[in-house]
Design a protein that fits this description.
By secondary structure, the chain is mainly beta. It contains two helices and 38 strands.
Length: 555
Amino acid sequence: MHIDDFDVQVSVAEAHEEIIERARTLRAASSTGNEPFPPEESGAAEIPPEVPRLDTKSWQRAVGLALLFTVLILAAFFYLIQSARRLNFQDEEQMATPKTAVATPAGAAPKTAIAVAIPLPVTPMLRLYTDLVPGTVVLDNQAPRSLTDGELILDRLSDGTHSVKLTGRSGTATFQFSVSGKAAPQPIGAPSGSNALVVLVSHDASQSHLTANTERATILLDGKNVGDVTAQGLNLPALGTSERQIEINRGRDRQRFVWTYTASPALTAYVKSDPNTGILVLTTGQDGVEVYIDNALYRRKTDRGPLRIPLKAGSYKVRVHKDGFVDPAPLPVEVKKSEEASLVFKMEPAVEVASPLLPSPAPAPAAPAPEKTASESTPTTQPAVPQTATETPAPTAAAPANSNPATEGVTVRKGGGFVTYGSPKSPGAYSFQAQGHVGGFLRKGKLQWYAGYQDSDNYILFSLDGKHATVREVRRGKSIEWNRIPFSADSNKWVAVNLSIKPDSISARVKSEDGSWSDLGSVSSPGRDFTQDQVGLYIPSSDEVSLANFRFTRH
């Protein structure tokens, strides 16, 4: 369609004329008052005249009343809710801080009650945490209690001694503790566990103490070394009121525990499964036998049957000892994970190792030296045993020796290097009297005895040269002087010697015939057991020593 099209122009003209005509009609109608168009009929029903018409003010008044009632109802609900909350809050405050009523004397003005904060009762408690779940806990042979997520809290403990036994899927643990008043519960002895590490921490405001079923373990508190736990446990620094980290190091094995503060005096027990352990079942047939594992004394002795010892999987060397019995040879054992290994030691009664060689400690006369033959001038390798006139044996000698007979109860020993009298095998003391013969006593020669002898490169040597007494340790072939004191003795005088042997130390003292005891000092070596090493005399080939009253006494 185009504006220049004739048909379009005709249509526009017709429309223009109709518009003009319409306008004229409307103008004429407005001047005469008539409606230009008849009204269209509506489909709505007409309201009968008898129906009352609603006044506009009436419905406005109704709406206003409805709004007013709504506001009042909402305000009432709000007031009730606030009142209930206020009452609940007051109840909680009364429970937290009870009020103490103050009596008002007759005739006096009433006094306002003063709120006094009464502390909640503080009683000893036991807290137990474990990963041995599912598991049960038996307290004092009562009915078993189930663990809740590996946790059990007992806060109503009566005074006295209590026992706890925990049984889990992969291990067990037992321990005892005592309760006295409001003090923290105290462990009784060390705890025990099968395939489990048991750690007990007793804590109150004044002190803390840790006990565990492991020995030779280092304890770290928040990463700082606080010491090694023993059979008696370990005292800890004040734990305070904050969370603390406790770490137990056993060689390459490290276990960590989190200690949390509680206002009540508490015993906190941690029981952690330790599947990399086994059990050593040790049988001796005797009660009260000491057990050494890798030369470390175990905390318990045998008692009424076999001794069961939990150990980390690995290889160990075990020995036992009891006074009055011969120490059997140490035995190796291999402890395997989650298994039991058995060792059996046969304990034989010991024969008295020595008896007095002289009836009294009075100085004994020197025995004359016999003539030497060519064969005697060379040291032999036959075993030598000090003897008395009645053939009473002294400690067994296992080193070179001497064929000189004993005279008048005096044993004369010839030069032969290290003359061994065996090893004590247990703590004790050697005592004897000695006198030299070559060049006058203690003038040109020396009186020398030794202990802790392992080989010719490792031993402890005690020497008297007439002017001084010296203690030396030969370690890996190198001599170390431990002590040197003045000590003089006249010719032909006897010297009394007392040599004390302990597992970790050796000490000696000497006394001349007319003098008092002189302490030579001691040599210590932690981790070494001197009772298993040799003891004897060192006699150069050109010297002779008379020996009397040789004896050994067990400690």
